[in-house]
Amino acid sequence: MSKETAPQNVTARILRLVGYLTDPRSGPGKLWMRFEGASTGVMTRLATSPRYLRFAGRGLKRMFHLHRDLVDLTEEVLHFWRVPTLGDLDEVRAQLRRAEDRLEITTTQLELALELLEKVQTELARSLRGAA
Q1: DSSP state letter for 4
Q2: Which among 52, 78, 84, 104 has most CB atoms closer than 10 A?
Q3: DSSP 49
């Protein structure tokens, strides 16, 4: 009765496996702890090495340039086939948002003008009744 049954949930099984593999008392856990300690030391030295940081910076710069070039190429191909790009859709969205804002302002101004017109008509009607 005190025997523990394996959980039926896949997530629970995976978490138990990860727990076993990283537990400092298990065999794999002991290896993991050694690996983690060694890799932490190596990463600390790399993170403070100017040579590595320059190398990593150049790699990131090249990656960002490559990403930009790929986006530009993709947009060119999509424009060639007359397919809107994400940038085009964002631009249309922004224009629509500005048009909605202007419409809201115009509607508010129109409502105020109608209220003022109603007041003027009411006052005119009163003055005509008083004069008659």
Answers
A1: P
A2: 78
A3: -
Q: Which of 25, 24, 48, 52 is nearest to 36 (CA)?
A: 24
Separation of alpha carbons 46 and 34, rounded Å: 19
Arithmetic mean of pLDDT, 55-68: 97
Distance from C-alpha of 8 to C-alpha of 69, rounded to nearest angstrom: 48
The predicted-structure confidence for 71-107, as pLDDT tens digits, reads as follows: 999 999 999 999 999 889 999 999 999 999 999 999 9
Letter string b/e over residues 70-105, b meaning 16 or more CB atoms within 10 A of that residue's CB: eeeeebeeeeeeeeeeeeeeeeeeeeeeeeeeeeee
Alpha helices in the chain (DSSP H): 10-22, 27-47, 50-80, 86-131
Q: What would the two tokens of residue 34 be? A: 């050694």
pLDDT at 1: 44
Amino acid at 96: L
Distance of CA 39 to the CA centre of its chain: 32
User: Would the CA dihedral through 46, 51, 54, 60 be positive or negative?
Assistant: negative
Question: Do residues 32 and 21 touch, judged by C-beta distance below 8 A?
Answer: yes
